[in-house]
Amino acid sequence: MHAFDYVRAKDLSGAITSGSRPAAKFVAGGTNLIDLMKSEVERPAHLVDINGLGLAAVERVPGGIRIGALARMNDVALHPLVQQGFPAISQALLASASPQLRNMASIGGNLMQRTRCTYFRELTFAPCNKRDPGSGCAAMEGENRTHAVLGTSSSCIATHPSDLAVVLAALDAVITLHGRDGERKVMATDFHLLPGSTPHVEHALRHGEVITAVFVPDAAHASHSSYLKVRDRSEFEFALASAAVGLELSGGTIRSARVALGGVGTKPWRSREAERALIGKSPATATFRDAAEAALTGAIPHEQNRFKIELAKRTLVRSLTDLAGGAA
Amino acid sequence: MTLPPCYTNPEPDDESPADPSRRSFVIGSAAATAAALISPILGAAPATAETPPKSDPNAVAVVLDVNGKRHELRLDPRTTLLDALREHLDLTGTKKGCDQGACGACTVLVDGKRINSCLTLAVMNSGKAITTIEGLASNGRLNPVQAAFIRNDGFQCGYCTSGQICSAVALLREGHTHSDDEIREWMSGNICRCGAYPGIVAAIREAANARV
């Protein structure tokens, strides 16, 4: 691990000042950052501990809930406001990591976690455009079974690993950021960026800015939502494919729908195409299959991950079927 | 409950044990072997015990409250909580397995919550109440989870066991023990390479049932 100086921020303005220095990084739970510091993928010169800032409340606010960025994953997953109004958030968090990691990891840190592409973590021989811009991508012709089929570019095919971020993209969440210029808000769908030719630029957060909260609006499709995660083992594993879905059903018709996919995209993958295929229809397998085909249109496989296209479609059909009451 | 004859209750924490521990014996033996191999080749002076530098300019003050005992340390900020426990406080019951949060061997309780001590810095835990496997027994009596692991054969080689037990102690408080499946799910952060899972689940089920 490279040497750094450690600063414990006492308040938000102090955190922003400390975190605005070159090569400064914020640490909350540390579960991803400290791991990457050990492997020297991350080499901050200043480590700014923001755990003293509070920002851990889950509370009802007009029009929705506000989740503090320093709330821990387990605490949010088991919070009654989340379980009742936003079950997909609770399910996605409980499907993530392990109980120990969920006790440590914060909501803001979850959104900021880096890809699990093995080449990203391999400093000794593998090129990686995300870690070392312009060096190339070893995954293109290498081990790419777990990589993305949506949103890829010729520079990068790494998936975004967060389960929570998939649900936040589906449910129109808004992320609050604080920096030297004050507060600003970014839609969850705009927070993570496509790799394009700059895969090292992963999110809308500016250097020195702190994620302070996540707002999730109330909606019928939010309280009737679910998260289905398909993976190589049943616990403590990243998604091969996942689906966050929300449906508002009345009179045998889908009034509103929210769909986002995980494990297959270079960013949490909101599919408005799938939503358009659902709205106004009756919940039936053929409709769900149409939505799945729409969601995966344009998917580009690589040598080992072609299976993900069909897997993602079936994951979406199953999650919609289960949410609509099973007998679609 | 009858303990196996090989088992002795943990000794009170002693900062300077009179007898060399198994660990220092192993390290000493390894160093001696290395010295024996290297010295004839290099013709160098015999290896001496490595002494850490007295004053590290990067060191920061860290207060670790471990098992009810306060320790004032000066540590390189890179020191993980796991390394602080093992290398600086000689509390080697907490194990280093993967050192990347994937195995759970390093599980300890911080302010009552189970965490992976390999993925947090010691300085981030300054002032918090830390409980390790060494702190679970009280007044010479095993924690009921420890006793249940012995009764149910909840281990084979034992390397993951301190993490399994710390995790299980927290699990019982959390209450995710309504079924064997729920126990398995909420113990998924602790890997046992020997595959002692049936005994681990049985031990936790027994300890959970004894609480109600």
Short description:
With 328 residues, chain A is of the alpha+beta class. In chain A, 29% of the residues lie in helices and 21% in strands.
Question: What key attributes describe this structure?
Answer:
A: about 325 residues, Uridine Diphospho-n-acetylenolpyruvylglucosamine Reductase, domain 2, Enolase-like, domain 1, 3 domains, five-stranded antiparallel beta sheet, 13 helices, about 30% helix, B: alpha+beta, Ubiquitin-like (UB roll), DNA polymerase, domain 1, five-stranded mixed beta sheet, 6 helices, about 35% helix, elongated
Helix and strand arrangement:
The complex is a heterodimer of chains A (about 325) and B (about 210).
Chain A lengths: L4 E4 L3 H8 L4 E4 L5 H6 L7 E4 L8 E4 L2 E5 L4 H5 L2 H6 L1 H8 L4 H6 L2 H6 L51 H7 L3 E6 L2 E6 H4 L18 E8 L2 H4 L1 E6 L10 E10 L2 E10 L6 E2 L1 H7 L6 H12 L10 H17 L5
Helix pairs in contact in A: 5-8, 11-12, 12-13
Chain B lengths: L21 H21 L17 E7 L2 E7 L5 H8 L18 E4 L2 E4 L12 E3 L12 H8 L9 H14 L5 H7 L10 H15 L1
Parallel strand pairs in B: 1-5
Antiparallel strand pairs in B: 1-2, 3-4, 3-5
Helix pairs in contact in B: 3-6
